[in-house]
Amino acid sequence: MADILDIARSSQEEPKLIVRKAPHAAVWSVWAVLEGIPPEEIFEGSSEEEASSWINTGGQAWLEERRRKRNA
Predict the structure, then answer these.
(1) 3-state helix, strand, coil in the chain (%, to 5)
(2) What's the CA gap between 24 and 58, in Å, rounded?
(3) SS3 14
(4) Which of the residues 1, 4, 13, 71 could staple to 40 if both were Cys, CB 3.0 to 4.6 A apart?
(5) Strand order in the sheet with 28-33
């Protein structure tokens, strides 16, 4: 399985972070999505609010870490 960030490195695009509800449980996840490749789950929370809030904190840190790796 290819890492979404390795692919993002070659395209110079940033993954979009979206919230999805698991169809089989009361779990909300944040997914990194980049056009043309499978999405990658990067966070799981117990509510939509928790997952959405994480995008503004942990999600931004996740993106920044990936930018540093890509630019290294």
Answers:
(1) 45, 25, 30
(2) 25
(3) coil
(4) 4
(5) 16-21, 28-33, 40-45
Convert the pLDDT of each residue in 11-32 to its tens digit: 567 789 999 998 888 899 999 9
Contact call for residues 42 and 60 (beta carbons, < 8 A): no
What confidence score (pLDDT) does residue 70 get? 74
Cα angle 58, 59, 61 (rounded to 5 degrees) comes to: 65
Long-range residue pairs from 15-20, CB within 8 A, at least 24 positions apart, any chain: 15/40, 15/63, 15/66, 17/42, 17/55, 17/59, 17/62, 17/63, 19/48, 19/51, 19/52, 19/55
Pairwise pLDDT comparison (35 vs 31), residue with the higher score: 31
